[in-house]
Amino acid sequence: MSHRVLRALGYVLAWLVVAVPAWVIGFTHSSSDVVVASHDAVVHPTLDGWVRVDMGPYVPDLRTRTGGRIGVVVVLEKTTANSTGELVQRYAAMAARPGAEERRVTSEVIGLARDSALRAAGIGLVPIGVWLLVGRRRRRELWRRVRTPDWRAEVRTAAIAAALLGAVALLVTQPWRPEHERASSDVWLPVQDALPDVPVPQDLQDWQVQGGLLTSDTRRLIASAFDSYDRSKVFFTGIKDKVPSIKGLLHQPGEGETVAVEVSDRHDNIGMDPVVRKVADEARATVVLDAGDDTSTGETWEEFSLDSLDKSFDGYDHRIFIEGNHDNGSFVKRHLSSLGWTHLTGKAITPFADVRITGVDDPRSSGLGSWRDATGLSFDEVEQRIGDDVCELDKQGERIATLIVHDANLGRTALARGCTDLVLAGHLHRQVGPTRVVGENGKVGYSYTNGTTGGAAYAIALGSKLRRDAEFTFVTYKDGRPVGIQPVTVTVAGELSVAPYIRLDLSTTD
Fold first, then answer.
1. How does residue 127 score in pLDDT terms, banded at 50, 70 and 90?
2. In 3-state terms, what secondary structure has residue 18?
3. Backbone angles phi and psi of 139, in degrees to 5
4. Three-state secondary structure of 106-138
5. CA 182, 186, 187: angle at the middle one, nearest 5?
6. Where are the domains positioned within the chain?
7. Per residue in 130-175, pLDDT tens?
8. Which CATH number applies to 258-503?
9. What confidence score (pLDDT) does residue 500 get?
């Protein structure tokens, strides 16, 4: 083996000897701030193979095995819940469908591992770089000094080495990052052993609870959470199990047809997301059109709802959305856009099958009603402006096939003037239409309002069951235009009802 190869192997070995321990120390000392289970939270990766959730002072901590070597500690901090009961409902709903939360925490841990690896790789190059910078001649001189001691040189060399080691230690451990100490017991018990008088759902049997005495209030709290979890799991799983029975009632796209599913007014009800996706798969939908109100307040604690929506429609060709009046502020549009969803901002796009689409957020969502370079616009002004833009496109031969708004009234002007084929909306929490409208120019369009996909009463839908009938709608397109609509309803009793396929007659009156 040549001298060069041996030297290269030596460098690699030296790099590994420094970089691997540096990665382990850096990774296990890293942390990330995220939102988990509607809490501000801190994620700490570990190498013990456990997922541990530090619940705070009133609820015992929980943990379960990851099935691998990497683990994580999730420290829950402040939340926006107004009551313990509301918080329990959130826990139960998210625990019954934990996919989005798991994906977020996993993503954070992977990010921390990657960042630590990059730092460790750089740290591993430090001794090699020092070795090369010193050079062969200087190394020989240093070696001679070692063999013929000079106390001044030794002190100087020791000081330099100590400084280098200190710098490396600081880079690895990052002591300026705050430590999150936990005052807790190391005694863990299976949940059923810790709570022998509380029925534990089968899916949670592998979880362990922090040992110690549990108060009667804590027992009632945990029992309530388990009960809500069980009812939520049973209710929505039962609906999914019925989906195959309605397959024959769903319109199947013919050659050249594309099916989109419209959702609106989910209001944090993540239980409906896998139901919609399973029915949509049977209807062969490949596009999702979101007409807004995915949240109840638009706050960051509702990130779980947006992540659930994203996970449920993962793999779709196109995912398009606007904000509703309850999606206050900029968080919803920021987060969904970061996940790859297309946000409509009043400009026409042609995302699929030559279908030209435009849309605009509800002007009441941000309190500003901004429209391009204007601010402070009223609802009526936004209606007029989107109508003018849609009609100008129609004159140019670029007719809008679908105008997506949260409130169908925003599309009144465009329809009345005969400038669009279809206005899709939500907001009312009940189905309206499809209503055929003959415009002033003799062209035909339709207005359709989807019911609440989350089964929401007012702006609240999060819970173990539906508060009112839920609805989502399939829209079929062909040759760049909408040709049919088919609503699907899920009743509060958990029954699926498929309405007949409604053909849209867009022929003009001329």
1. confident
2. helix
3. -60, -40
4. HHHHHHHHHHHHHHHHHHHHHHHHHHHHHHHHH
5. 135
6. 3-173, 258-503
7. 766 666 666 566 556 655 555 555 556 555 655 655 565 555 555 5
8. 3.60.21.10
9. 96
Give the Cα separation of 58 and 218 in Å (integer): 7
| Strand (E) or helix (H) holding 210 | strand 208-210
Question: Residues near 382 by Cβ (< 8 Å), separated by ≥ 6?
Answer: 360, 363, 369, 371, 410
Residue at token pair 């750089």: 122
- pLDDT exceeds 60 at position 183: no
Report in angstroms the alpha-carbon separations of 496 from 236, 247, 473, 503: 11, 11, 13, 21
Length of the chain: 510
Q: Which two tokens stand for residue 84?
A: 């313990």
Q: Which amino acid is at 107?
A: S
What distance in Å separates the CA atoms of residue 128 and residue 144, rounded to the nearest whole number?
Answer: 21
Q: Which class for 501: exposed (0-12), middle (13-18), buried (19 or more C-beta within 10 A)? A: middle
Q: d(Cα 307, Cα 315) in Å, to the nearest integer? A: 14
Give the model confidence (pLDDT) of 321-375 as tens digits: 999 988 888 889 999 999 999 999 999 999 999 999 999 998 876 543 444 444 5
Sequence letter at residue 299:
E
